[in-house]
Amino acid sequence: MFKRALLALAIAATATVPAFAHLDPVEHGSLAAGFSHPLFGLDHILAMVAVGLWAAMQGGKATWIVPAAFVATMGLGFAAAIMGLPCPLSNR
User: Fold this and answer.
1) On the chain, which terminus has fewer CB atoms closer than 10 Å, C or N?
2) SS3 at position 18
3) pLDDT category of residue 91 using cuts at 50, 70 and 90
4) Is 6 helix (H, G, I), strand (E, B) or coil?
5) Ramachandran region of residue 29, left (φ > 0), alpha (ψ -120 to 50) or beta?
6) Mean pLDDT across the stretch 21-41?
7) Terminal Cα distance for the chain, rounded
8) Could you list the residue range(s) of the whole structural domain that residue 67 is in?
9) Which long-range contacts (CB under 8 A, 24 or more apart) does 61-69 make?
10) What pTM, to 2 d.p., does this model score?
11) Domain total for the chain?
């Protein structure tokens, strides 16, 4: 069991790199792009599906609390971006 977990951790650690999935808003951004990306961006859609499946598997109150926490956290990220707070591990 421990060897499997260690192997999974090693694979995840070597496969993980910064995604830099979002374009520079100064060069490519617009209000429409900012609103449409969370709805049509593949990274956001996959995250929303994963959060929904995870919440459904938990059952009970988690069915609503987990997705609500996801949306609230995205809102905090939006607020941080609007305030101009630096993004960790970002070279901008």
Assistant:
1) N
2) coil
3) low
4) helix
5) beta
6) 68
7) 41
8) 22-92
9) none
10) 0.58
11) 1
The span from the CA of 35 to the CA of 33, in Å, is 6
* Residues comprising the chain, all counted: 92
60: left (phi over 0), alpha (psi -120 to 50) or beta: left
Instruction: Report residue 78 as tokens.
Output: 């939006």
Phi, psi of 16 (to 5 degrees): -95, 125
Residue 80 placed within a domain:
yes
Q: Is residue 17 part of a domain?
A: no
Query: What is the distance between the alpha carbons of residues 33 and 26, in angstroms, rounded to a whole number?
Result: 12
Assigned domain for 31 exists: yes
Structure tokens given for 92: 């901008």
Residue 63 · residue 55 · CB < 8 Å = yes
Higher pLDDT, 70 or 21: 70
Number of H helices, E strands in the chain: 5, 0
9 lies in some domain:
no
